[in-house]
Specification:
By secondary structure, this protein is an alpha/beta fold. It has 18 helices and 32 strands. It has a five-stranded mixed β-barrel. A five-stranded mixed beta barrel has the order 18-19-20-22-21. The chain has a five-stranded mixed barrel with strand order 23-24-25-27-26.
């Protein structure tokens, strides 16, 4: 009989976090109370009680010398507030995914929205979610209940409704409920809050149930996600049984079965799952041994038969016989063919077996299961690596050591990195230096991180952010030791505001004021630079007390007045563009950043009433520079100087080349020369 244990069997992240919190407090000598059972598993709760952990129903029951741990399912907001008032110390072990729902419904309620919750109305998680709603909230557990709820509450198409789900709600049912909701509440908002681990666990259970003669579901009978697993498996495998411990197993459950699948709820300890697996394996091996070895066998035949039954978790060495993209075949010194599937070679889902392994290589492996009928042994290299890898992870945690691993997956809530064959979960809040950075950019990269938390079932949590923060601080300290005014740096534009651009100089940010970006007037920094641009800047000012740096970007050699001085002396004839007009003349663009005035008396060789009689906006004309005042930053131009004079009988023209003082003030600021 082949026994297969689901990969996702056992504690989920939230449950492991809650249990670890309690265990760590107990190990520190604290007296601990949990607000309700820490998880829905009476065996673990009983084991904790033997260590002195009390279960209380309300915060007021906690003694002055005890600390209170709020369980993973979460509690209503009012209970949290009472706990803070009544207890000397409170540790909130609410699952982060549940806490996220609390925030969603609270915000929705404050916005005047009605909240719908898919789940068990009596479950502690749902009670906790409703306790964070400040307005009307309703619970449904089936599609029919949702239809009735929507109809009875007369929710129209434009109703302000937000719908969430209990983290352990049935995944397929949730999809159906979403479709029903969208038909009625086209203006409603849906948050897909089923825990990613729950969805994956149910999908894996369904796949295993389709392939198995018998399914064993291990977990507490009061556990919501365990009951959902049984429902999923029962729909696909008629012989599905729910057991809490190995003591509930009996041979009748799997008699005559050739394949048995084992799945477990998120609150089932790894030890209980292992006991169930071992009990079934021992019973199977006992039957197989008796059937395989008989009195009329020769010594050699009996020896071979005894060697054919290999224990799970036994370490062996295998010589590679062949490799393809899906599996490796190895010789482990038995008549059975050893097989290492791609997913059992490495935690890296992108590993290429044909590149990583070659015929003749010797691999350290662990036996997973033996199939006597097919004559094969399923082996795992990654599990062998995990044993040594876990010891290194524990050591790294104890020494606060920085380690390196490859980021292999982007998952809900963070990323997964592999280190020495072990998976390390890095939450989104610990994966990047800032929340604005994309997690997708990490995939496939090698990252440095610390182990910040370890728990049951070889679960480790890491932090890239703590390493990046240290590196940034080191760069900042080095920068402030050497920075000085006038020093040039190469940096990257980090962000833009209406008043300037912020540049990362390597751990330290400086700002280029909008006036320092260009010699030409700009309305927004994006006209000159964009986020991600590499720029060369120089330090204009330093505030060491506030640790602020002012940067310059425009270069002296690009100053249009310097260009004018060098290339456009008085008397130069150049092509200019008319940009605006006033009653006393026209302003023309000489070069970017410098405009000159063509006084009305210098536009034509005859008397004109207004500049528009001769010129138009955007027109290009030839003009001569007749005067430059560098102090006042003014340039006077003349078209008339390039024209032949009219007859003496013509009306006299004004000789002034400057706008009257009372009229010059009328020119708009953007038309004035810089």
């Amino acid at each position: 009989m082949q026994v297969t244990v689901a990969k996702l069997a056992g504690f989920c992240f939230g449950v492991n976090r809650a249990v670890t919190t309690v265990e760590e407090l107990v190990n520190k000598g604290q007296k601990v109370c949990t607000l309700g059972p820490i998880i829905h598993n009476k065996q673990l709760v009983s084991a904790l009680e033997k260590q002195g952990v009390r279960t209380v129903e309300k915060p007021e029951d906690v003694k002055p010398d005890e600390v209170l741990v709020i369980r993973s399912h979460g509690v209503p907001k009012a209970v949290e507030e009472r706990a803070e008032q009544c207890c000397s110390k409170v540790y909130n072990a609410t699952c982060p995914f549940v806490a996220k729902i609390h925030g969603i419904v609270a915000e929705a309620s404050r916005s005047g929205r009605t909240v719908l919750i898919a789940g068990d109305p009596e479950h502690s998680e749902v009670l906790g979610i409703r306790g964070h709603c400040e307005g009307p909230s309703f619970v449904f557990s089936t599609e029919e209940e949702l239809v009735k709820l929507l109809k009875n509450n007369q929710m129209q198409e434009n109703s302000a409704v937000t719908m969430v789900a209990q983290t352990t709600f049935h995944a397929e049912l949730w999809v159906k409920c979403q479709k029903t909701f969208k038909k009625v509440c086209t203006n409603g908002i849906i948050f897909d809050t089923i825990c990613n681990a729950t969805s994956h666990r149910q999908l894996e259970a369904a796949k295993l149930a389709e392939q198995s003669d018998v399914m064993i579901v291990v977990g507490g009978r009061h556990s919501s996600n365990t009951k959902k697993l049984k429902e999923v498996c029962s729909a696909l495998c008629k012989r599905t049984y729910l057991v809490e411990t190995k003591d509930e197993l009996c041979c009748e459950m799997y008699r005559g079965a050739s394949t048995v699948g084992i799945v477990a709820g998120a609150s089932t300890p790894a030890g209980i799952i292992k006991e169930v697996q071992q009990t079934m394996t021992e019973n199977t091996n006992s039957v197989a041994d008796n059937a395989a070895i008989s009195d009329d066998m020769s010594f050699e035949e009996a020896l071979e038969a005894s060697l054919s039954t290999l224990n799970n978790d036994q370490k062996v060495k295998g010589t590679v016989l062949s490799v393809n993209a899906q599996e490796i075949k190895v010789d482990i010194g038995r008549k059975y063919t050893g097989i290492v599937k791609a997913e059992e070679y490495s935690y890296d889902p992108n590993v290429n077996l044909e590149e990583a392994v070659h015929v003749g290589d010797v691999l350290d492996l662990i036996i997973m299961r033996t199939n006597d009928q097919e004559g094969t042994i399923m082996l795992s290299k990654r599990r062998f690596d995990s044993i040594a890898g876990w010891d290194k992870i524990v050591e790294a945690k104890e020494n606060n050591e920085i380690i390196e691993g490859k980021v292999t997956e982007i998952v809900k809530g963070g990323v997964v990195a592999t280190y020495e064959g072990m998976r390390v979960f890095i939450p989104a809040s610990q994966a990047t230096l800032t929340r604005a950075e994309s997690l997708e950019d990490l995939k496939g990269t090698t990252a440095s991180f610390r182990i910040i938390e370890i728990g049951r079932g070889h679960r480790a949590i890491g932090s890239i952010r703590s390493v990046l923060q240290e590196q940034k601080k080191a760069l900042q300290d080095k920068f402030w030791e050497t920075v000085e005014e006038g020093k040039t740096y190469t940096g990257v534009v980090k962000s833009l505001t209406n008043y300037g651009a912020f540049v990362d100089l390597g751990g330290v940010d400086g700002m280029i004021h909008i006036s320092e970006l260009s010699w030409v007037r700009v309305k927004h920094p994006s006209e000159v630079v964009n986020v991600g641009d590499t720029v060369e800047v120089y330090v204009k000012g330093i505030d060491t007390e506030k640790r602020k740096i002012s940067l310059g970007y425009k270069k002296a050699e690009d100053n249009p007045w310097e260009i004018l001085k060098a290339k456009y002396p008085v008397g130069t004839v150049c092509k200019v563009t008319i940009i605006s007009m006033t009653s006393y003349g026209a302003f023309a663009r000489i070069i970017p950043g410098i405009d000159g005035l063509i006084h009305i008396s210098q536009i034509a060789n005859r008397r004109i009433e207004k500049p528009q009689d001769v010129l138009s906006i955007g027109e290009e004309v030839d003009a001569q520079i007749i005067n430059i005042d560098f102090d006042a930053k003014r340039v006077s131009l003349s078209i008339r100087a390039l024209l032949p004079e009219e007859d003496e009988t013509a009306a006299p023209v004004e000789e002034s080349t400057e706008a009257p003082a009372e009229e010059a003030t009328e020119a708009p600021a953007e038309e004035a020369a810089e």
